[in-house]
Amino acid sequence: MSASRMLSPRHVRLLSRGRDEFLTAGPGAGPGLRSLTSPPLLSSSSCSSSSSSSSRALSSLSATRRGLPREKMAENGVTSRAKVLTIDTMNPTVKKVEYAVRGPIVQRAVELERELSEGMKKPFAEVIKANIGDAHAMGQQPITFFRQVLALCSYPELLNDSTFPEDAKSRARHILQSCGGNSMGSYSASQGIDAVRQDVANYIERRDGGVPCDPDDIYLTTGASDGIVTMLKLLVCGEGASRTGVMISIPQYPLYSAALAELGAVQINYYLNEEKCWSLDIGELQRSLDEARQYCNPRALCIINPGNPTGKVSFIHFGQSQVQTRQCIEDVIRFAAQERLFLMADEVYQDNVYAEGCQFHSFKKVLFDMGPEYSNTVELASFHSTSKCYMGECGFRGGYMEIINMDDEVKAQLTKLVSVRLCPPVPGQALMDLVVNPPQPGEPSYNNFIKERTSTLAALAEKAKLTEQVLNTVQGISCNPVQGAMYSFPRITIPEKAVKEAKDNGQQPDMFYCMKMLEEMGICLVPGSGFGQKDGTYHF
């Protein structure tokens, strides 16, 4: 299998050339209805007159006061009704939702692709989409064993085909026997297929060196995003100064800010230190929390490790010294315990660690290693997905969350909440089962699986290094080392004339920059303002 190409060296050189050209060339029912809704008891003899008077009273109210859409006269003289749902009458929290990785710049990229397909001349031959971690769309090849088992599950007649290895057939039978009617087209339990949750629990125990995992604490999800939003729904309550606040890192993955906006929660920003390689500082967490307590009720702390979009494997700084990941996680756990915060650990990039000497540590393992004082009290939800790491299977929407120390009554409410959406996609559940239960030594598919997995991760590591090196050769761009995940978040210096032109056009300067890059070079980036950044700095 060939490795992922994501942003190839040629793409990075195009990015560099576009930056140079940009720098040198510059920027080119109301109270009136109460008596009607609560009428007195009427005798049969009074019904007619009462009904008549009620009708007259109702008709005397304007359509607007009765909650009905206005009628308006069309040009042809025919009366037409206005829309019931308008921008003014829709849910106001939805209008506050922004999701930069699929925002206006991406919509323009789609338009450009259509224009190219229609033969319109552009300064580029293709649109390179670097706006989202969609590995297969950029050429990464799927893992053969995963697709073989999914094919067998989708069309069980293939179980009679001798070209499929026996371990793939065995996994497919295991999954199908766990499905209603032995079919992947049936609903599963709302929490997920029991056998898959057991396999996830076994995987977590192996990963964390024997720390116990109860399958009843596992919820299979529609990608990690579904689990994250579900947990936020449970956490958000209160009004005014008692409204739930949720601490998120800046820069952040826009899912968090979008979900908080939709739920009407308060977003509490804590800033990662770019000058110290996007490090997390406990002092910054404390500053952010103390300020937020003046206007909301902080209840949760979200951590993304490895980081999106910074590519950071969590480090923490005390003065000038740098302490490795595990110590960072311990201090975050102590902070959450001290301040009574619910911890949410986004760990979907746990296999994407590239930097020398770096290692992934799960929040759960560190929590339990710290002893009962913490492992019996700190509330934690952690998340994983089939979309990233070496799999890149974004479209199957597979994932899970594990909950630790959740109140039993709240857990019952969580189970009720997930039952409303019936179940996560069963093919995604099947794929999650394969991720946590891959080929083992001695099985027919093992050697090829290890070869493909190693090749994919090695290619990603090579491109992480290449991205940092090449971007740092470009005047006006600086990029921290990409230690993990699948992204870099370089800082850009934008000329004052370009900043002024952007503001004159009502745009953020980095959005202006990224739109120029798209229109002139065909490279689709996400402006740093979509992820959050310190005032006066610009990124993509």
UniProtKB/TrEMBL annotation:
UniProt protein name: Uncharacterized protein
